[in-house]
Amino acid sequence: MATHEQYILHVTAGATYDTSKHQDVLVNSEKPVDVSSDLINAKIHVRIKDYRGLPEGSPKTSPYFSTPQHPYDRYSISFSFTPKHDIAGDKLVFGNDFDHPIRDHLPPLFDKAFGIVKWWIDPGLDGDVYADEPYLYGALLSSINVLRIGSKADGDKPSGDDLEGEAQTQGDVEVPGSDGEAIVYEEGADGDGVEVRKEKRVPEKSGARQKFFLTEQNRKDFVFEAGREYKCDFFNPYLDFNEFALKIGYGLPNISMIGHWDGQPLRYVLKNRETNQELFVVVIELLPTEQARKEGAEDPKEKFEQVHGSEKKEEKNED
């Protein structure tokens, strides 16, 4: 039986589902992946506690996890983005999706764990894990842990995306580390983004903002404006990428995912539901170690073919 010690992680990111056009993510590094398309400009950081994966020699952790805000969190996907077209507030979502069914490979107690997530952690989560192309999305406004509304772009001034490696606002906390400074986004606003929060009556605190945007009309009243920068951070203490286990707590035992893995990667997507267009995609893939390969551990393709057969759907957005 496969164990988590036999596998390591490979993380990539890009503007579409097409992984052939992705860049490797330097996990726990402060060098972001830059995504630029005709829809969005974005910078993405991925931080994973006790990281085992590629590139070889990657830091096992990040100073991010030593901050007062994140001592118990196990991973973070933080990103800044500037839309190139307005996006309706009730249509921008962030979450996970898959190209193939997972319904026959869900671990025992999954339904109970999902119920706890919906009830206590993210009431706005929507999806269908039993579909042929399963998904779990949450409205960005109510699901994301941190939302910081920035200034609208001024042609004579650099945007936040041009200030890589520096704390850009009072809400960005610099934390010394072996890899420079970790930038930790804080809830709030900068520049004329302060007026946007006031005008839309967006609460100052993260939890209150998430609750505020659980109301559909409040989401509909908000617009992610073209040319305005937004900073977000998604994190939690429940998914342990070192052991590939879900650790929800609330009386539930830890749920190991290795024994139920079907070869598909875990995919995080920022998506416009109105156009059904992805804006960026982060892919976290399991790869067997060299020693595990020698011992017969399956790679993702072999595992996928064993579970789903050799016929694979045409990859999305190949063009």
TrEMBL record:
<feature type="region of interest" description="Disordered">
    <location>
        <begin position="292"/>
        <end position="319"/>
    </location>
</feature>
<dbReference type="InterPro" id="IPR013897">
    <property type="entry name" value="Duc1"/>
</dbReference>
<feature type="region of interest" description="Disordered">
    <location>
        <begin position="155"/>
        <end position="177"/>
    </location>
</feature>
<dbReference type="Pfam" id="PF08588">
    <property type="entry name" value="Duc1"/>
</dbReference>
<feature type="domain" description="Domain of unknown function at the cortex 1">
    <location>
        <begin position="9"/>
        <end position="286"/>
    </location>
</feature>
<protein>
    <submittedName>
        <fullName>DUF1769-domain-containing protein</fullName>
    </submittedName>
</protein>
